[in-house]
Amino acid sequence: MPDQASREWWEELFQVYEFAHYRQYADELTRREVDFLIDALGLRGVETVLDVACGGGRHSLALAARGWTVVGLDAAASVIAHAQAAATDQGLNVEFVTGDMRQLPYHERFDVVLLMNSSLGFFDDETNQAVLNGIARALVPGGKVLIQCLNPYQIERYLRDFRSGWYPVGSGFVLREARFDPRRATLVINYRYVDAGRGIDVTHPGDQIRLYGFPELTAMLRAAGLRPLSVFGDTTLPPVPFEEASIWQVVIAIRDRPVRKEAEDADRADR
């Protein structure tokens, strides 16, 4: 398969069929995560939300079901088609868009942007910064972004359960092999899918995810014009602090409102 077609196939496998295979677990995980999002972001039900790298749309669909206006964006057209079909089946009004997170077409449209499940880091440092810059542009003044990503200082703990092994998906099995390259602070993951009954044996093109420590991540947010507000150690309730043993870091940042001209004039007069 060509590289793009191969990646689309794998995205369907992971974002659609894997979640369907583990439906009960996936539904409970999504419920817990959305409960956390609502609490941590202080959502009131009136916000417009952009779910970047939305995959099969599980967060987008769950938020829409609770009344939020949601746009879900992902680069894989086939996955977006599945998400749109799910929205139609559930009678939900969600706008699903095929798009590149590196070139978000929005300007001051959203109250909240989500970047979940370690979806920051698929590119080089300059491009990852450009992703955050685009998110900042998409936010209205006073809007917030929530980024969930792995804590590189605890990657060994994360890989204890994730490093390698076979697991079932659909009628076949996936072999996952993961390692961390400390020289590049990059998580490298390779997959193979085997379905003997259907004569399938394919290899994933490979993922490389640059992991950022908290000081790096907050510096990148500030460079994008986003002010970090809080950080948590997981997407669970009650909220857990980000500390030494945290595998995840969940950062919330705000695009500050511009200072009003009258306030600026008053400030000058006081000097």
UniProtKB/TrEMBL annotation:
Residues 49-143 form the Methyltransferase domain. It comes from the Bacteria. One of its GO terms (biological process) is methylation. This is Methyltransferase type 11. Gene3D superfamilies: S-adenosyl-L-methionine-dependent methyltransferases (2.20.25.110), Vaccinia Virus protein VP39 (3.40.50.150). The keyword Cytoplasm does not apply. InterPro entries: Methyltransf_25, SAM-dependent_MTases_sf. Keywords: Methyltransferase, Transferase. The lineage of its organism: Bacteria, Bacillati, Chloroflexota, Chloroflexia, Chloroflexales. The keyword ATP-binding does not apply. GO terms for molecular function: methyltransferase activity. CDD domains: AdoMet_MTases. It comes from Chloroflexus aurantiacus (strain ATCC 29366 / DSM 635 / J-10-fl).
